[in-house]
Each structure stands twice: as C-alpha cells, then as structure tokens.
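For the sake of transparency, this paper describes our internal protein records without simplification. The record that follows is passed on verbatim for readers who wish to inspect the format:
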Amino acid sequence: MAKTVLKNILQILIILIFNNFLAQKTPEKLPKNVVNDTISKKDTIVVKKEALDDILRTKADDQRRDVPKKMTFLNKNAQVKYQDMQIDADYISIDDNKNLIYARGKLDSLGKIIEPVITTQAGKKYETNEFSYNTKTRQAIAFNARTEESGGVITAQKTKKYSDSVFAMRNADYTTDEYYIKKKDTASDYFMRASNIKLIKTKNKSQIVTGPIQMYIEKVPTPLILPFAILPFSEKRAAGILIPSFGEREDVGFFLNGLGYYQPIGEHFDLKVLADIYTKGSWNLRPQMNYLKKYRYSGTFTADVGTMVRGIKGLDDYTKNSTYRIAWTHTQDSKSNPFLTFSASVDIVSTKFYNNPLNNNYIFNQNVLNTQQSSAVTVTKRFLKLPATITGSASYSQNFATGLADLRLPQMNVAINQFYLFKSKTGVRQGLLENITVNTGFNLTNYVSTQENELFTKAMWDKMQTGLKNNIALGTNTTLAKYFTFSLTANVDNALTTKTLNKYYDPVKGAEVDEIQKNVAGYSTFSSSASLQTTLYGMLKFKKGSVVEAVRHMMTPSLSFTYSPDFSSPGFGYYKNYYNAQGALTPYSIFEKGIVGTPSSGVVGALGFNIGNNIEMKVKSKSDSTGVKKIKIFESLNLSGNYNFAAKDHPWSVFSINGQSSFFNNKLSVNTSLALEPYKIYFAPGATQGIRTEEFGHFSVQGFNVQLSYPLSSEIFGEKTDYAKKYPSKGEVRNENYYFDDDNYAHFDQAWTLNINANYAYSKGLSALGNKIASVGLDGSIKLTPYWNINGSTHFDLVTKDLAYTRIGFSRDQRSFTINFNWVPFGQYKVYDFFIGIKANILSDALKYKDRSFTQPNAPF
C-alpha cells in the first residue's frame, strides 16, 4: 500500500512539473488574419460550471481522501459546512461523483445508534440516525429523523427533503410532550401517528398536512382517528377540526358532543361550528362567531338549533320537538368613548329549550333548572357639560313556567345628576338648608306581557302599554347635639299612562271582568319622612385571667316618621268602586295592572323604628401575635317595625328580625331572618285560613329562614407537611410532585375541599299549616394523586327525602393532555361524558382541549 501511495505522489509531481514547464514557454506571435482563421466560434472552449455552488468546509479527528474514487471520509467529531447547512456526525462520507454527502450517528458495540446526526439549516436543528444530502439537487433523505416545530416534535422513520420548503415523511409521530421535547424522557406520554406526513415551510409559517392520523396514549392506540389533519405552526390564529366528547344519555342514546370546525375570518372575526349527534335521531347545530376590535369593542353571536327525538317511532312515548337558542353579547371598551356606550346581552330560547337540552353542557352546569331567561340592549349617553345621563334600552324576559314573555321596547331614562339646592356661604355645608340635595329624572316605558306566539302580532300591539314617570326627591341632614343625625326627605311621583282599568261584575258570566280602556290618565303622589339616628357603645369587661376578656356591643337605634295622604279618596279620582259577586261595594284603582304602579290607599302616618346591633367578643389566643383574638358573635342583628297612627285597624306592622354572623375564623357563615306577627290569629273550627284579630301581644312566628355555608379544606385540619424536610428523596422525570421514604413509598400533598350549604325556610302567614323547605348541598373535590382529581356536587331535600341534582367528575392531568369524565347518575337527565384534549396551544384549534378564540385572554390575535 505504501508503494501505491508513493507512486501516486510521483505521478502528481511529474504532472505539476510538466504544467509548470509549459506555462513558462513564450508562444510565438502569429499574424492577425491567421489568428482569425485558426480560432472560430465552433472551436471556443466552454468551461463547465462547478458542481458545488459554495466552498465545502470539512473537519474531523480522522480524514481520508480516496483520489481515484473521488471520495472523502471523515471519522470522529466529523463536521461539514456547506452554504447555510452544517452537519455534525460521528461518520461522514463525501462522494464527488454523485454529489452526495452521507452522515451516520455514533454506533455502540452492538451497532445501535447512540448519538444522532445533527443537521442545522437556516437556524433549524434536525436529529437523525442517517442522513444523505445531494448538493446538486439539494434533496435529502433522513432515517429516524427528529424535528422540532413550534413547541412540538416530529419523529419519522424516513424523511425526504424535496426542497427547502417541502418535506415528505413516512410513519411519523407528532407530540407536544414537554418531557420528550427536552429529552427528560425517552418516550412521550402521547403522540399522533400518521403513515404519511407532508411538512410545508414558508418564510412566516409552516404546517403539517397528513392523511389518516391516530392518537396514542402511553403507546396504546385509541379510537380517536381523524381522516386527515392540518396542523399550522404559527403564532396567528388558524383553522382546525374540533374534537368532540362522547358518551351516553338515557333519553337520547350515545352521542358525539362538540364535533366541529374552527375558522378565523380576517383580522377581527372567527367562526366555530359545532354539532351534537345522537344515535336515537336527535341532532343539534351550534355556530358561534366572535369579533374583536382592540380598544373598541368585542362580542359573540351564538345559536343552538336542533331537533330532540325521544322514544321509539310508532310507540306512545315517541316525541319530536324542535328547539332553538339565539344569544348575542356585546361589550364596549371603556377607553373607546366615555360619553357614549353600548352593551347587549341577548339570550332568547324556545319555551321548552331547557327541558330538551341537546347540549350536555346545560346539564352539567345546571342550566336545565332555569325557570326564567332575560335579555337587554342598552345605550347610554353622557355629556361633558350637561349634568344629565340618558339611557335607552330594550329588554325581553321569558317565564318558562307560565309561558309568558315580557317585552319592554323601547325604554328611556333621563337622570339628572344630584345637585344642592342652595350654595354654601362658608365653603363647608352646615345646617338643613345648605345640605338640601335634589334628585330627579324621567322614565319612559313601553311594556307588554303576552304569549310567545303573539310576539310582534296585532294582539301584542293591542296589549302594549306606555307609561311615563317622574320622581323628584329632596333630602337633607344635619347633626343635632353632636351625637344625633337628623334627616328629612320628601318624594313627589308623577305618572302618565295610556291605558286604565274599568272593573265590574258580569252577572251573565258570573265573574269579575277587567276591561282595559285606551285613554290617557295620570296621577301625582307625595310623601315625606323624618328620621333620627345615633350610635351607642357598650363594653363588658371580665376578670383578669378569664378566657373571655371583654364583650363589645355597638347599637344603632333609629326612629323615623313617614306621612302620605289617602290617595284613594274620591277627590283624587285615582280609585273607583264596583259591586262584587256578594253585592259589596269594593274599591279598586284605575291604574291596577298598569306599568306606572298604583297610588297608595289610606292615610299613612307611621312611626318606624330600627335597632341595629353589632356584638363582638375578645378572647385569649396563643396563635395571635397580640395574644387577643376578636370573635364576631353578630356582625349585624336588626329589629324593625312600625306603628301607623292613621290606620283604623291593625296599626302595628309585622316585626322583622334579621341577623348575620360568621364563626370559626369567618369560615361558617350564618344568615337568619324571623317574622313575628304581633296580633292574635283566630282559626274557626276546621278552618285552614285564619283571621287577624285586634288582640295585640300574641307574637307568633309567621316566617323563619336560616342559611348556613361552611367551606372545609385540608388546610383547616392540621399543619401542612414539609415533605422536602421529612423525606430523603424527590421524584424525577415525571414524578417531581412525589417524595419517597426509605421504603420507596411515594408521598404527596393530598388536597381536598368540601363546601357545605344548608337552608331551612318556614312560612305560615294566615295559614294553619305552614310550608317548609329544607335542603343540604355538598360541593367539593379531592386529589387522589397530584394528577388525579375527583369533583362533584349534590343536593338532598330534607323534606321529600330525595336526592336532587347530583354530578360526579373525574379528571386526569397528563401535563401535555387531559382526560375529563362527567357523570349525572340521578334525576331526569342521566348522562355521562368523556373527553380527551391536548393542552398545547399549537393543537388547541385542531384538537380542542378548551375553547380558544381571540376574545379570550392569552389567546393570540
């Protein structure tokens, strides 16, 4: 071999010497015409273009050149740089004949790749086992390539590079598992596998286009298969398929909930279309459009349109109903125009929409319990110099129990800003006159209550009422004798309406008739009141050494006197009389059943009282730095009532007692109310309805209510364990939240919460038999492990002994994706729902984990 090398060197030296000799020989000069005859265009020598467009730079610990074969071999720490590409590998060969660069990763003793080939091009890094690159065609083939793209990793058995922007891959996996991306783990907790993938790159973005793609969890295939997928790698919003949840509901069968597509539209809009499909024939379509203009406004249009099918066709239990829901919300940014604002919250549903929910989310969030729905659109105009605010609105409310719809269209309110009637002489307001304030405004309302099928028909317009109201309120206050606050108020109400009531008894029909008459009528009423209020403090101290050091009592008594005349007297003309079925003369107001209210009847000259109390206790406490702890016995305890001097009978009102307090470090909240009837209620033998007598002093409970709420948690019971100090080692890779003892048992903080709500209500009135309502509600969650969570809620009716709405949920956090399961086992709607979703933002459109749009925080726009 040494002789062959020596021979090659001698040949090269001879050629160089010969060329040098020829170069030194001076050519003879030839005549010009001879030159022209000798050299022609056909004889011109064309220099071939070099195969390489740039210099090929190489380095390695061991380099070898095979001149006859035109091959270069690089071993150990090999590197090749060509144009914007750099290849680092354990072995690289360069074939000048084929314009081919081949690289291979480092092998172990068994021939297994233990270190990859690293190729860097245009700032992008690729890892492969083997890599081939043609410098002439600029095409490449890689085996077991690993490519990082915008928070995700693609690994493919074979990758072919057609150009700098198009890559074709065979048997490729894509994942966003952070541990796999950062090489903390050799296997990802999930990946999406496709037999063919095309990666397309442009200057601003790149995307993956695949054929059939299947989700694997812990290398186990799942039934989640898509016929194709387009995964965009861009910071901008992008279109994608929305993956549904699936489950079963007793009344409508198995389902796919939320199957759909997300499509951004321009800069300010996006559209999401979802579908719910049930095996028993029900279906639902849910389009949703979001819009946003930064610093101006944002809003959402949504709809639910579908058909609910229950039972089997041909049988008695078969029903088929159409349902709909249309909603629109609009919010104006406060920075856009402080003098003119517009907002909308429109939510219109069919009468039995919540009784036929096709969207299971309405079951899980308890919307099926809704009995009313309301909508409103509001425009508010403020002025820079005028002290007034004008508000125009339209509202619509539905009552699902009665089937009635209330419409207020249009409605306008003009409010004048509060002002003082007199100026202050000294700059500091003193006395009753200088403190007189005036509040006034106008309210115009068009109102109708009708059946839904009569909306915007002649029948509805005939029922429409128009009313105009004006209120003028004057108030003032001052301090008397340093400790008393004296207040005076006066109210004047003016009203106009377009319809009045004529009431009479029809002997033919044998019923009372309410006849609505179309005529303009109005009324004016006024009332005045005076009040006196002060605050008293009391302190009861105990002996030194006692657990209870002191009890503090703050009392706020107030007296008020209210006067208003009898507006039912004939002189005002607001009331009329008719003979009822028994022939008795019965008064009624012509403004009854109207929208402007009814003037009060009877003279009111009532003395009212209210006694407010606040009671606290100071006790010794080692946990407090001051050594003393305050405990609230009653945050508020109010007793109120009034005595009407002008009343002909029953001058005393029902006494009301209301209390509020909290215990156990403000954890247990207690709210109570009690209504006491001061007069004796007489019941005739066998009667269920009593009569209120004039016998005062027989206090009986007419109503009682108590509400309790207590949030419990693992933090309340015992001290929090410092696992880092208690246990010798902490988990690694996917077990960072675990601590291990000497026996290798895992320990972690098993947090839990439990909210307890209890309610008891008793109402009696004049009935012999009172009504009771009593229930207990539980709402809580517990972490079985740092990644497994169970949550649920239930309510138990203590009167009927029945379980009300109950929901149980399970969730598993796999860091890069989650698994959710919700189950309603009892009640009218028995349903379970299962969902798997990807957390990564890059897949949040294509494989929906949670709704994403530019109207939500942290979403790109």
User: Anything to note?
Assistant: The radius of gyration is 43 Å. DSSP finds seven helices and 51 strands in the chain. Residues 13-49, 845-861 have pLDDT under 50 and may be disordered.
